[in-house]
Amino acid sequence: MDIAFADVGSHKVVRVMGDVDLYNVGDLKRAVFELIDEGEVESLIIDMASVNYIDSSGVGALVAAQKKMKTQGGKFGLLALTEDVLNILKLATLDQFFKIYESEAALP
Amino acid sequence: MDIAFADVGSHKVVRVMGDVDLYNVGDLKRAVFELIDEGEVESLIIDMASVNYIDSSGVGALVAAQKKMKTQGGKFGLLALTEDVLNILKLATLDQFFKIYESEAALP
Fold first, then answer.
1. For the segment A17-34, what is each residue's pLDDT rounded down to a tens digit?
2. Comparing C-alpha atoms, which of A46, A53, A45 is closest to residue A82?
3. What is the ipTM for the molecules in this complex?
4. Where would I find the STAS domain in this sequence (chains A, B) (predicted)?
5. CATH code for the domain of A61
6. Which of A8, A24, A33, B19 has its CA 20 to 30 A from that of B10?
7. CB B64 within 8 A of CB B96
8. Binning pLDDT at 50, 70 and 90, where does residue A9 land?
9. What is the pLDDT of residue A104?
């Protein structure tokens, strides 16, 4: 995975190139949080056009980055999701959002 | 759409039967919020086994119910989602969770 930065209008765009998983999510977090900690980014956009797979640690990093940006009053968005990543995020965010049980027998 | 109630262990289960849309979401909200407002439900479970379609007003009602339950320190979950409703919720919660842009040209 490689990371590059670009300014697009008022947005700071972080281009992620390659898959994001437990083994390289630290690099992504470091890059993104350094940027956020500088406190000068009004709108952080993660460009995912070149990402075909992201695991739950990567989703967690995106969620954490969004949370931190919003805490600072900034904006956060995802750009150009591939079909595969879109599907992973759909399921991951649904799981984060609602607790879902398959049957009454599965209720705690 | 019809609504029925059941107690399953420590859970109050609200069984929704039929599709949820702008025209009947008020009935669902009334039933669910009356239950929540009584303040005696520790865990509210919405049984969606007999729902094949839910529109954005219905998703909004579920989100609002969950929020209110959590504010009261209670639990909230969805039970037995049909494939179609699962897909609708995946997209709706992803949209609620992240702002997603298809291209740089779409950035605000």
1. 999 999 999 999 999 999
2. A53
3. 0.82
4. 1-108
5. 3.30.750.24
6. B19
7. no
8. very high
9. 86
What separation in angstroms does the CA of B86 have from each of B60, B65, B72, B78, B82? Answer: 15, 18, 26, 10, 6
Binary contact (B77, A99; C-beta < 8 A): yes
Task: Output the six-digit token pair for A64.
Answer: 């954490």
The residue count of chain B comes to 108
The pLDDT tens digits for A49-100 are: 999 999 989 999 999 999 999 999 999 999 999 999 999 999 888 887 888 8
- Interatomic CA distance for residues A75 and A43, integer angstroms: 4
Q: How far apart are CA A90 and CA A75, in angstroms?
A: 20
Q: Which two tokens stand for residue B76?
A: 């909230």
* pLDDT value for A64: 93
| Cβ pair A107:B66 closer than 8 A | no
pLDDT by 10-residue block (mean), chain B, 108 residues: 95 96 96 94 96 94 94 94 93 84 86
- What residues contact residue B32 under an 8 Å CB cut-off, 6+ apart? B14, B44, B46, B61, B65
Q: Structural domain tally of chain A?
A: 1
- What pairs with residue A42 in β-bridges? none
Cβ atoms of A89 and A46 within 8 Å: the answer is: no
Domain that includes residue B11, residue range: 2-106
Find out whether A48 and A86 touch, Cβ atoms under 8 Å.
no
Q: pTM of the predicted model, to two decimals?
A: 0.78
